[in-house]
EAL domain-containing protein (Methylococcus capsulatus), 1380 residues
Amino acid sequence: MDSVKADEGSIAGRLVILCWEETELVRAFFEAIPANCEAAFFLPALSETALAQLAETRLPLPVTIAESGAPVLPSHAYLPPSGKYLAIENGRARVDSPPASGHPVEHVLRSLPTDRHGQTAVVCRRDASDLERTLAGVIERAGGLVFATPRFGAGADKADSEPEAIAQAIENWANGKPAAGSEALMAILDLVRSHSGADLRAYKLPPLQRRIARRMDIARIEEPAGYLKLLETDVNELACLAEDLLIGVTAFFRDTEAFALLEATVVPVICGEVGADRPVRCWVAGCSTGEEAYSIAILLTEGFERIGQRPRLQIFATDVDAEALDFARQGLYSEAALAGISKTRLERHFIREGEAYRIAKQIRESIVFAPHNLIGDPPFSRLDLVVCRNVLIYLNAKIQEKLLESFHFILNPGGHLFLGSSESLGEAARLFDEISKPWRIFRRNDAAAAVRPSLPPFAPATTARLAEGRILTAFPGTHEFQERLYRGLIERHAATLIVANDRHEVLYISGNTQPYLELPSGEPSLDLFKLVKSPLRAMLRSSLDLCRREQRKVAAVVAGSGHAFPLPEAVRITVTPLADDQVSDLFLIGLEAEAPADPVATTATRSGDDGWLLQQLEQELAATREDLRRTIEKSRHTHDELRASNEEIMAMNEELQSANEELESAREELQSLNAELTATNAMLDAKVVELEATSNDLNNLLVATDLAILFLDRNLNIRRYTPACNRLMHLIPSDIGRPFGDIVHHFEDGELFHDAADVLKGEGPKSREILDRQGAWYLRKILPYRSRDNCCVEGLVITFDEVTSLKQAEQELIAQAAELRQQAELLKHAHVLARDLDDRIVFWNSYAEKFYGWSRDEALGRTSHELLNSRFPLPLATIRQQLLADGHWKGELIHVDRQGRERTVATHWELYRDAEGTPRAIVEVNNDITERNSFEAQLRQSRHYLDYLAYYDPLTQLPNRLRFQQRLEQAVAQALVAGKRLGLLFLDVDRFKLINDSLGHDVGDNLLLEVSRRLEERLGPADTLARIGGDEFAVLMEDLDDISYPSRFALAAIEAVKTPVVLDHHELFVSLSGGISLFPEDSRDADGLLRSADAAMFLAKEKGRGNYEFFTPDLNRRANRLLSIETRLRKALENGELELAFQPQMNLQSGTLSGAEALARWNSHELGRVPTDEFIQVAEDSGLIVPLGEWVIQTVCQRLAEWLRSGLKPVRIAVNISARQFREPNFVRLIADSLAETAVDPALLELELTERLLLQDVDTVVRTLLELKRTGVSFSMDDFGTGYSSLSYLRRLPLSHLKVAREFIPWGADDCNNLSISRAIVSLAKSLELTCTVEGIETQAQLNCFKTLGCDQAQGYLISPPLPAGKFEDFLRDPLPFKL
């Protein structure tokens, strides 16, 4: 990387920020930029690694890695170092660490000083954030350039976003290429006005010229005249230019602090002072797409709500852009556009519609959006608030002043004005009082004289008239003709009219002036008395003075004749004062030839020119004298005024001298203050350096420490954490600011939040020992995070110090202490004796007396092994040798007490030595272990029995599954070596569960004993019988020479159990189903043989039970499919592959829809459409029926809630409940929670039960049903008569519905049996006052049959097949009656 050194004079004047993240775009851009481009380039979105990619192409500009403090040079490009963000400060690059959030582009745009905005160009990236676009808009409004890739708006030409086109535009901008000339600019603006209706003549010219130049660069046109021709022929280019010139930048609550101040200071005043008889009137000028108008409406609405009043608002939002107004009227905004709105306001004032949000109706109806030209149309009046943000900055100063005067005029007394942060009042500051200067919030100055504005502020560009509600413009040339005609009529038939002001300056002339006016020689002048011919001057001056004094119309006639008076015969002079609310000190002078009344007198007058001349001179002299008198009087008054003014000037001079002295003093104070500030700044710099060092030390300490420390604020949001915290919880840098309760942690601490609340309340630190999921122990401490002045608790510091080793040591100490206490307790009750080296007893404690029966006196001196008749495990001499060698000996002895009872003791002998180490005595401690040994003997016997139970069935004494598996594996291994054949027969007792559940387990056990006995009687010498499950048996047949032997044995076994079994007065008829697999044909391993035989057995059950089947490859495929279905069914529940269909139920009396049954359907991504019977059976066998049933119940409730919300009238939906799901302990809670969460009427949910439920504890079933009944749901008995029907059970169950199974539907007129059963079921339902439904109706004859029987409802494919949810919803929306 090159090192760049430069002085301040070479810092680039213009800056280009390229926000692209694609290296290809950057390369294409720089290839089109010349080497002498005077701008510097920042690439904040590219990393240091992109430098190598850019180096592959020779670029005209050097591209380097930026260094902090290095000057930003022209014709250079800068990339950020790896992992850093770029910024600019005082013309020098700055490299910052990445903040907690935000994009590098946002960072560099924020760092730009305000005075550099006009010298900055921004090329935005494709997915620019709202903040980036807002910052770019600020730069553009300040005079900078903004390019988009593609443009922010729709409809832009692709050439707009070409890197080459952007490079050309930036080159022209950076090198100062002149913009369009004034004449071409005006013509272009006229075209824009005619196309879009936007009059931009009052806008500042530089921004307009820059944007036009940008479009010229994109169109590759250098001359303004050529671009003007393009606009005249290309409507699309004209539309693009109009869109560029009318860019609107707005957002909800833009400048959050400004709106917060407006809400706190202005809104309460407006809402509180307005009377109940009128609304608050507000005008939002330049509203663009409406975000700012809606923000104002929300603030005012909330202001009224805070004072408990109904909002009364009239808000006028105007703009010249009709498309933006159409968008604003919709009030529909994306989620990104609402980023500046709080969650509370979002929920209160917005309604979600898909991926967007719509403004609430109350807010929308308070705003009127209308097209309005701020500088050409009249304003609104009687307003309480005017909002005109970031509009005035585009207009010239004169129009700004006129608009501000207009705003002052239309505001009510005490009204408020809200401008943009870049706008100021200028000369109009006297009209408003300042509320907030930074945020440009002002109050109308009621003391200032109201200036009546001139409307419109800017004269319209074309002549137009208003007729019948439309603007009608004359055809080309018509207006010019009319004006010429009008002027001709004035000149021929009207008097000569002159408008002059109080200074005798001519402002306007109309009519024929030749007889009365003449142009003087020399410099042109508008002085009235220089232009009027001399004979009229005296009378005109006199008439003007009289009119000025008396403010009335004055008329005079000047007569003349001959050459001395070069005028008509007589001239009438009329002077009229012009004055109204807007105009004053103007005079209308009329000059008109007048014929004399007496022709004779006129002739006489003309004959005597000298007499007339004398008369005229006398009149002029009198007028002159009068003028002189007034002039002298006026001079005297003027002298007095000048003297007073001189005195005022002298006083002002003295005040100015005093003010000058004060300024000198203030300057000295400022110099002193500047010196203090310089010193303070130096101190702050030192503090900043110290703070940075401290911060670095703290960061390094937090990173280096192995202690988990967590810093929280008062709301328990994360402020900082150490890396060691990741052992206990998953934390990433973006979690800073998140609530600690949302973080997943790996330890159990139920008191954490309670302790945290106590510490925040001011209690002392809290500590607890906690255990994580890995088994490690931590000492958790919660300490207060106090402010610097230690006056309040600002948060918490939580430490997690691992104390696993200490905890283990503590537990070891506790165990050792317990052991010592146990030993002490044992010694307390031990039998202790001591004897000398000749085995004579020298010590005998009290417990020895109680245990053995001899007193201390009787025992002392006796030989111990003779007294106690001791039996040793080793010869006594050997024991003594070990004792002398080791100093101790342990073992078991058998003693005989005084009563002759043998006692087994655990003895411990310790050799006692004197101070010289000579053995002196033996201390013997004995503990009675007689009972313990007896218990251990019993335990050993029990272990033998447990070993037996591990391999044999305790009921039948047959090998169990484990033992049979071992035997089968051994037989397979021997058969592989010897090349022999094996046979495996799986047998299952049919319907055993029914017998076991209905007659009890004792009967079931006796039945299994009888079956096992009969099977054992038919075993061959090489056969092994085992019980491998509840009602399952297996037979291993080894050394098979006859392939037919397994089938013969299976037939014999099936026949053996056909003989009825009589148990407890019950005669039971039992059958077996069997499956046979062969080795090596079906499998070459034990597990494969077991699976094959099991699959064959299930096939035999499916074919009717009481028979056997051999395994075939098809069975293997079927078993694999069932396994695949089970595996994928688990994933289907997680991945949402299941869906519900609804089969309608018809009322047989009215033909209307009365209900529907919910049926599960599965369309697997891998298996395709899986038949319902197939996957339901797998779910029953595997236990997946429970989560499947929960999903069905929750989905049905959600569907019912959706139908209710959409305005449909749903019907009762029946859901099938399996017996296994019904037995779940949380089944009642599941139903209640599903109904509560969806707020569905319980009467719309029906639970279909099967008769298998009755095989359980009927009392428990009834209690559960009654508990469910209290929730409001109803019950039906499905497939009644196919299971184990019992009328007594039916009477006890709280049923409301009975369903006839499809098995009982008569297949024809001759099917009398099914017809009789169906008639009986329908009659039974009616007798019990239950609704009766028949399902499976497929023909009209079947439907007619059950209608005749009096059945209430029918269901089947004749009526409707099961419908997907969408089609069933259409069925509900348009419920057509069924055809009966």
